[in-house]
């Protein structure tokens, strides 16, 4: 008989090219494995070996929990990506940006106030803001949901407001701006996706409190490493205090891994190769999915308006070493990127959009998790190539079936 090939669980047939009919396309979850091929190309110089006696102490040579070498590399990556102004600001590390979200809420909340700070975000918002703020159940802060409901309270000095501003937003990719402004409003800028592969960078972010994560920069979500860039010294000190009490700093092993990865990021193509790779991957995926959705009247996805990108403009300069494909990147093309598709079920009867997709073997994240209702779902576009191919295949089938099913 014919030798049988080792197919991925979703493929069958003699050359593994046929989708198996009951394979489930997983577009749930935010695991950024689309960057795995980049790291496979740089497997040797990103590898890490640590002798057993290395890095045993709680602290670095400077007696702090923070590697100054890593901090320097982080500042350098921001200056190459042109996505954040870090000079004159402090840097705090966290076990993923998840930990820093609450460290920031803690640091911005009043102590000993008679009423807790109200933590808000604009809908649709990343669910952890709500669940985490509720979980810590502090007398100093509580989650109050939709930011826009507090627009008339910003001049009331007895109300302390803390707004999470997520740009690009998870789930819909919009470059959100603060909804609230005023003397008693504090803002936490969650910039997890503010990198040239997920969005145009109109100008470097220069906010008082900005949070980033290696998860969405290099794709190493499992290393649990994030950082905050903080302008105000007192806020910085409170975040450091939070980190000291909750964790005594971030694992030195995680810091070492992050340093190794950022070294490779900075070495390859003058620090531009990873962004070029990630941008092209995301752009191709976004274009292919939008082409399928454009043929549908049952489903729609978010519009992302054109924006000028400072990062790619720079790459498009006159230097002769720049590969031709980079020269093709125009601001028109750049508008097409987003980490997630925010899909809406348009047909009246499709009230539960994630159930509609589940019926077609697609796993999505329900819009109600983002306080946006069941007509919407989030589809992850940052998973592996296989995950994306299955998703596209299944969506294509659904859209082709539209005429027959209505
Ligand atoms: N902020 C946003 C908007 C996110 O989407 C995520 C992860 N999906 C995080 C923060 C947390 O990321 P991490 O803890 O891995 O740094």
Quote the beta fraction.
15-25%
Query: Helix content range of the residues, please?
Result: 25-40%
Largest sheet geometry: 7 strands, mixed
Order of helices and strands: EEEHHEHEHEEEEHEHHHEHHHEHEEEHH
SSE order and pairing:
Elements lengths: L10 E2 L5 E2 L5 E2 L9 H6 L26 H14 L8 E5 L1 H13 L8 E5 L6 H9 L4 E6 L14 E6 L18 E6 L18 E5 H4 L8 E5 L2 H15 L4 H16 L5 H22 L4 E3 L8 H6 L8 H4 L3 H4 L5 E6 L7 H7 L2 E2 L1 E2 L9 E5 L4 H16 L1 H4 L1
Parallel strand pairs: 3-13, 5-6, 5-7, 7-8, 8-9
Antiparallel strand pairs: 1-2, 4-10, 9-10, 11-12, 12-15, 14-15
Helix pairs in contact: 2-7, 3-4, 3-6, 8-13
This protein binds 4'-deoxy-4'-aminopyridoxal-5'-phosphate.
Summarize the structure in words.
The chain has 406 residues and is an alpha/beta fold. Helix 3 packs across helix 6. A seven-stranded mixed β-sheet has the order 4-10-9-8-7-5-6. The chain is 34% helix and 15% strand. The chain is built from 14 helices and 15 strands. A hairpin with a 5-residue loop joins strand 1 and strand 2. The chain binds 4'-deoxy-4'-aminopyridoxal-5'-phosphate (PMP). The site of 4'-deoxy-4'-aminopyridoxal-5'-phosphate (PMP) has 13 residues, from helix 3.
